[in-house]
Specification:
single chain; alpha+beta; Trna Endonuclease, Chain: A, domain 1; 6-stranded mixed sheet; 3-stranded antiparallel sheet; 9 helices; 23% strand; globular; DUF5787
Length: 316
C-alpha cells in the first residue's frame, strides 16, 4: 500500500472515532520536520475555541499583548515586523478574534474573547506502511522524541511488526499496525508520554562525524505547540485537490478514489493527460467540512464571539 493511500485511510479512521486529525504539518522549532499525521485531543476550553472560528488563528495575534479589555493601539501590542503584525490584525478581525475601532486616524484593537486553553494531548504519527523501506525513519523518530513537541509519538505501519523492528526505533515511540481494509488498529507498543513542559533537543543536521542540535526552551516549545495545534484545527486532513477526471469517485470519507487505478490518487502526481485512464471532467464536489463537523467536535459555522458595543467597527 502506498504511503498516500495509507495516510488518508488512517486519517479517515481516526476521524470516524471523533478525533481532530490533520496531516502534513511542520513539526519543528528551528529545523525542518514534517509530521505525517497529527491528532489534537480537545482540552478543557475546547468549546470556547470552536465558537470563535473554524479557521486558524494567526500566531502573532495570539502572542500579542492585545486583551479583551481596553482597546489598544495596534503598533504597541506586537513584537514582530509591522507587516506581519498588520496581516495578523486583518486575519484576526476577519476571523472574529479581534475587534477594531478608529480613533483620531489610528487603529485600536481588542480581543473578542480571551484565547482559551483548548489544546489537550497532541499525538504525532509517522506513517510507514512498509517497514522494509524505512528511509530516515529512525533519525526522524529520535528527533521527535528528543524535541518532545508532541505528547506522544506513534509509528503507524501496515507491515508485520517484529522484535527487530521495535528494537530499531526509540522505545518511547508507540507502534500501531493499521489494516486499512478492516479499519482496525493493533497496538503493538504503547507510546510513552513525553516531557513537553521541559526543554527539548532538536536535531538540525546529522552527518557521519557530527550532529548539529539546538536546545529548545519550554516557552519556545509552548509557542510551537500552540501554532501546531492551530494549524491542525484550521487545516484538517482533506487538504488535497481532487482530480479533474471522470474516473475519480470519492468514497464516503472523501478520499479521492480512482476507479481506473483501483486506489486513492494524488492529483498532483497521479492524474492528468499522461494517465491511460484519464478522462477529463470537472473535479468532484466533496463537502469535507460537513464530514468533519459531523464526526468531530470541530464546528464549521460557529456563532463567533464578536461583541457589538458602542463605537466598535464604526469605521470598518
Amino acid at each position: 500500500m502506498r504511503e498516500f493511500d495509507f495516510e488518508l485511510s488512517l486519517c479517515a479512521h481516526l476521524e470516524r472515532e471523533g478525533r481532530l486529525v490533520s496531516r502534513q504539518l511542520g513539526g519543528a522549532v528551528y529545523g525542518r520536520r514534517v509530521l505525517d499525521t497529527v491528532i489534537v485531543e480537545p482540552g478543557p476550553e475546547f468549546d470556547e475555541r470552536a465558537a470563535i472560528t473554524p479557521e486558524r488563528l494567526p500566531a502573532a495575534a495570539i502572542e500579542s499583548s492585545v486583551g479583551p479589555g481596553r482597546a489598544r493601539y495596534w503598533k504597541d501590542v506586537f513584537d514582530c515586523h509591522p507587516d506581519r503584525a498588520e496581516r495578523a490584525v486583518e486575519l484576526a478581525v476577519e476571523r472574529g478574534f479581534f475587534e477594531r475601532e478608529r480613533r483620531g486616524g489610528r487603529t485600536y484593537v481588542r480581543q473578542t474573547t480571551r484565547y482559551p486553553d483548548w489544546v489537550g494531548e497532541i499525538v504525532a504519527i509517522e506513517n510507514k506502511p512498509d517497514l522494509d523501506r524505512p528511509g530516515d525513519l529512525e533519525s526522524q523518530l529520535r528527533t521527535d522524541v528528543s524535541l518532545a513537541l508532541a505528547d506522544r509519538v506513534v509509528l503507524a505501519t501496515a507491515s508485520y511488526v517484529t522484535g527487530a523492528h521495535l528494537n530499531r526505533i526509540p522505545e518511547e515511540v508507540g507502534v500501531w499496525r493499521f489494516d486499512a481494509d478492516s479499519g482496525t488498529i493493533d497496538v503493538r507498543r504503547e507510546a510513552t508520554p513525553l516531557p513537553t513542559d521541559d526543554a527539548g533537543v532538536e536535531l538540525l543536521e546529522e552527518r557521519p562525524v557530527r550532529a548539529d542540535v539546538r536546545i529548545v526552551n519550554p516557552s519556545e516549545k509552548a509557542r510551537a505547540r500552540r501554532r501546531l495545534a492551530e494549524r491542525a484545527y484550521g487545516k484538517g486532513w482533506r487538504s488535497f485537490d481532487y482530480p479533474a477526471c471522470e474516473r475519480c469517485a470519492p468514497d464516503s470519507d472523501g478520499i479521492p478514489y480512482c476507479q481506473w487505478k483501483d486506489r486513492a490518487v494524488r492529483e498532483s502526481d497521479d492524474c492528468g493527460p499522461d494517465c491511460g485512464g484519464y478522462d477529463e471532467d470537472d473535479p468532484p464536489t466533496v463537502d469535507g467540512e460537513s464530514l468533519r463537523a459531523e464526526r468531530t467536535p470541530w464546528r464549521a459555522d460557529p456563532d463567533g464571539r464578536r461583541r457589538r458595543q458602542s463605537g466598535l467597527d464604526r469605521f470598518e
